[in-house]
Amino acid sequence: MMQNNFYITTPIYYPSGEPHMGHAYSSILADVFARFERNNNKKVFFLTGTDEHGLKIQSAAEKKGLPPLIYCDKISLIFKDLTKKLNLSNDDFIRTTEQRHHKSVSDLWNKLVKSGDIYLSKYKGWYSVSDEAYYNNDEISEKNGKKYSTFSGSEVEWVEEDSFFFKLSAWQQKLLDFYDNNKKFILPISRRNEVVNFVKSGLKDLSVSRTSFTWGIKVPENDKHVIYVWLDALTNYLSALNFPNTKDNLYKNFWPASLHVIGKDILRFHAIYWPAFLLAAKIKPPSRIFGHGWILSGDEKMSKSKGNILDPVEIIDKYGIDELRYYLMKEVSHGSDGSISLKSLTNCINSDLANNYGNLCQRIFSFVKNNCNSKVTKNNEVSESDIKLINETEKITKNLRDFMNDQNLNHYIKSVINISFLTNKYINDEEPWKLKKSNVIKMNNILHLSFEQIVKISILLNPIIPIATSKVLDALQVSPKLRNLSFLDGKKILPDKIIINDLKILFKKLDV
Questions:
Q1: Separation of CA 349 from chain center
Q2: Contact 180/254 with Cβ under 8 angstroms?
Q3: For domain 2-292, which architecture applies?
Q4: Which residue from 210, 228, 329, 467 puts its CA 20 to 30 A from 405's CA?
Q5: Comparing C-alpha atoms, which of 306, 344, 309 is closest to residue 324?
Q6: For residue range 381-413, what is the model confidence (pLDDT) as tens digits?
Q7: Where are the domains of the chain?
Q8: DSSP string, 219-270
Q9: 342-499, what's its fold?
Q10: Widest CA span in the chain
């Protein structure tokens, strides 16, 4: 049963500021995988949400003159609204201030206490409020009298306080064994190598509580301590499935998670701390952590402090959500950083969406409407050109599931756009407009095969540009129950006789 279920998550976002393009990228990426697996006939549970505890939230709320929860209510709503703006298909939106989450975190904490993996001591070391992360001495640099993390560039401060610790050092070899037995637990491979090398260099016990602030989940039976925000936050992936009720259908059907989509800056928390917590609590770790790169403006990571943020909402309002989704998914390479700009966005919309896929759909729909009374009927005649197109398409599509299984979305998109390119070339070569008077049967076959190609391309692109592709499938009157990847297994989608509806222009070409 689990093989046909797919549980995917975004990071839960820290609402200490407004959403930016990095949030949009992570969310859209996860949504594409979720939609693909639904089209792949899997039962999907897709989770996103907000991480609302910690010193950074408490400080931001104080600056606004608001109680932390009221502040979180306001900011969390902005992130919830963003899910609609990004056209996400998430099944749940979790907030770490919810009671269901508090219950899960407390239970996980108690399991770690019971297993002997938590003890009370004193923490002395470097801490970044911005990252909510602890850093070793060899990860600190100094500039203008201030200390910074060499990993993130964030300012750090020296902290000394009583703290509960998790025995992370005891899990060093067990984690290395786990990585070795689960070769694709971390993707891409460059991220896996990074994590393995870090763990091999030696793990220290991890401080998992704070006493210097109050905004968070209290340690059970010791309310002087607040549970470390990452132990709190990571547990959201369980609490959304009603953990600790392991008999609940959500938990039974969807844990362990199939895929955590995260940014590379929070890889250590997900690929080291999270599996260690779970293994210590005798809970099976997730199947996959995929750490994508940063969204760059020029050569720099987008950040509020640098003032180089592109607002996703402004881009959507001006260019469209399908356009932004496609651009981000294509432009940012598999696991690598991606530099984005309005110029490259415009070029991408024009070349791939307007001139390629959009043009393919428009020219065939318009021709059939104007010359065939919106009807096309297939017969049994098949030309060499038909066979060539069909075979070339099958050759391309046979790898698509594997690409998505490895989160290699760039190869996937390039392959699908290549099918569109081949279909456009086929139409140009076959010239159906010249056959209206001389060979109507062949003309109909060319048009029918073109529509079959358009259906395949539209279903394959649907996870990325769901609005435009749905318009095309609607115009071809494709039943919702047939809008899936069954054609990859040889299932027929279109009937021999097609009656089309009108299709308006999908993508307007933009001035460069």
A1: 21
A2: no
A3: 3-Layer(aba) Sandwich (3.40)
A4: 467
A5: 344
A6: 899 999 999 999 999 999 999 999 999 999 999
A7: 2-292, 342-499
A8: ETTEEEEEE-HHHHHHTHHHHTTTTT-TTSHHHHHHPSPSEEEEEGGGHHII
A9: Isoleucyl-tRNA Synthetase; Domain 1 (1.10.730)
A10: 89
